[in-house]
Amino acid sequence: MKIAVVTDSTAYLTPAQVQAAGVTVVPIPVILDGNVYDEGKDITSAAFYEKLRGAKTFPNTSQPPLGEMLKLYQNLANEGYDTILSIHLASTISGFVNTLKAAASEVQNAKVVVYDSQITVILMGELVLTAARMAQAGADIDTIVAALDDLRATIGEYFIVNDLQNLVRGGRLSNAAGFIGGMLKIKPLLTFDDDSHKIVAFEKIRSLKKAYGRVEDLFEAALATVDYPVKAWIIDANDPEAGDAWLAEMQARFPAVNWGRSYFGPVIGTHLGEKAIALAWIRDQAATR
Fold first, then answer.
1. pLDDT digits (tens, 9 = 90+) for 163-200
2. From CA 135, how far away is CA 155, in angstroms rounded?
């Protein structure tokens, strides 16, 4: 069995990670003021946020062309891959996964397995890297998918956003009612609901400092419930100084955690808005191998 691993640009993997893992990354398009940009290809994160501040219209995203995806799959099949594992952002924030599932049978001479990460950003990236490593080691597709299911179940995350305008307009927030008013005076905390896998707002915090403190306490409580090592990231939407400062604080408070830094690129930044920041974590695969 020869397995190819495909993902999309919202995994926010570095070029070095992509090359080492041998995965194929498909860019997700972002539309801003009528211009279409392929994330990670046509526009950098810094350039996107700069354009966003002066944008005349609300940005949005779209799915990669289905024809291009089928062509990619077929090319991989023609290269000798008999199985293609395609891991993508949560179906609750994009219809991409369901589009691919409906068309996967059209690929000749290869089985296409479309996997809903139920998340996005670097957390999805960890699922992708795990799948690629297992494929390179010779694991079969059922073993890889089972391992991804187990790893996905260890994911946790909290987002702090300046307001909910982007998520509400884009239809990505499932419980917007009750959280919209007075956004300038509060910092909403968001997470992916464990049951529905939708983005939900669950608390209103009166200041950014208190929001950080609340997320740290929630993270501490989550750590107390697990018996495995944890890898965590501070993720920012074009606010690297704040991200670096929070990372330093978290490293001091939780030295046993394997810490990293990542970012919200144009696609996810379209929905969360500039200056959003998050704490995200998953079981540390490197420590358990």
1. 666 666 655 665 554 455 455 567 888 899 888 888 88
2. 22
